[in-house]
Amino acid sequence: MEIFDLPRTRPVQLRVRRRRFECLVCKGTGKARTFSERGPDIHERYNMTHRLYEHVLDAITKKPLALVQKETGVPAGTLWNIAHDLAVRLWANHKFPTPRVLSMDGVKLYGKEYMVIGDAHTGIPIGFLETIEASPIRAWVRDNVEEARVEVFVADLHKSNTSVGELRLGRSLRVADKWHVIEHYQRVLSRQINSEIDRLRKSGRKEMAKTLWDLKPAMMAVDPKKCRWRRYPKKPQREFDLVRDLKPILRRFPLLSRAYWGRYDFLKFYSSEALGDAMIWLNRFHARTAPFSHTQDMVAFNKRLTKNWELITNYFLSARQIAGGEWKRATTSAMEQQNREIRKRLSIRHGVQNFALMRMVVLYAHWHVGGEIVLCSGPGCSAAYGPVAGPPVPPEIRAAAGIYPQCSECAGR
């Protein structure tokens, strides 16, 4: 019998001679099965030591199976079975603790929309659903979230998110994510720039249209550090300068100037310390954008602003103190960053389509499975709990001490 082990992270394959037994129940049926005695440190199902099994449990949530196979020497079929069994076990038996500030954000993977639910401050996910429809999300929140523990709920203004906030998290402070609100005005600004470019092209001023097209990334950038001169870096780029490059364009096109500086006023609205200070900037924003407030995009933006005014202004009430004493307002920024990491983790797995495995990779890549996420060792028990604090204890030390993690039900027997 070949046994796989991984002492000190070096893969080792042992050839062990053991007795084989014939199943007495199957004997005489023509389909008798045989089995070998396992030994004290060999996994009951897989031909590997317990410490290698625990190493694999943690590795398959963080690395592609092909890389784990290369590192450990364990056959691909065995790794697939371990990964699938672990994914199903965690899906059915493990729940994360509810964060104080809950966030929801959609992510598109392989052409399909998924919903990620997690801690708004850290971005660490606690739930992953293969839909963005309101009804299944509400059902998941009902079964997996302690609603009384949620102090703040932040999400974009998608109808599914607002429905979940109203019907399941009505006691919490519900906040519209500021970056999604700003993004809606970004679309207004983009349309204004595009319409000006089209007008210039139709009037034969193609060079001016090309200049405006090259400047569009700089005009759209919310972060000044991301301002750049050219859309495509085929030609040598020079440093973008607001006074030299953009101001002459804005002076030439007053409506475009109003749309651009209106975005500045709206950003100052969100960066204000209190709602009273923010309203000064919002009034300036409305006055500046009044000449094109009749356009379809601006009408839709103002309508959204009015309809969700309470959720938008709750942003100024959402400040909470986090680790280190810092005060932070609720946004989905951390969730957005995690969504980018989710795309990377799934892309290097060559587009895994099994939802149970996708969910395991999304939710447990941050945790040490077998250490922080504890799997009950009780006979026939598939419970899982955690995360728990403290450094993980190697399996050989636990075995020598006779200590095996158990859930509360198994420990009470």
Characterise the protein shown here.
Pfam families: DDE_Tnp_ISL3. This is Transposase. Residues 126-359 form the Transposase IS204/IS1001/IS1096/IS1165 DDE domain. The protein is an alpha+beta fold and 413 residues long. It folds into 3 domains: 2-94 and 370-411, no CATH class; 101-177 and 330-342, Ribonuclease H-like superfamily/Ribonuclease H (Nucleotidyltransferase, domain 5, 2-Layer Sandwich), CATH 3.30.420.10; 179-315. Helices cover 47% and strands 13% of the residues. The chain contains 16 helices and 13 strands. The chain has helices at 50-59, 65-72, 76-93, 134-144, 159-167, 178-202, 206-220, 242-252, 254-271, 275-289, 296-307, 309-313, 333-347, 355-364, 395-401, 408-411, and strands at residues 2-5, 12-15, 20-22, 34-36, 101-109, 112-119, 125-129, 152-155, 173-176, 320-321, 327-328, 374-375, 384-385. The strands form 5 sheets. It has a 5-stranded mixed beta sheet, with helices on both faces. A two-stranded antiparallel sheet has the order 1-2. Strand 1 and strand 2 form a beta hairpin. Helix 6 runs antiparallel to helix 9. The longest helix is centred in the middle third of the chain and has 25 residues, at 178-202. The relative contact order is 0.11.
Descriptive terms for the model:
single chain, 413 residues, Nucleotidyltransferase, domain 5, two-stranded antiparallel sheet, elongated
In short:
Helices cover 47% and strands 13% of the residues.
- Record field, number of beta strands: 13
Q: Report Rg.
A: 28 Å
What share of residues is helical?
Answer: 40-55%
* Whole-number mean pLDDT: 84
β-strand percent reads: 5-15%
What class would the helix/strand composition place it in? alpha+beta
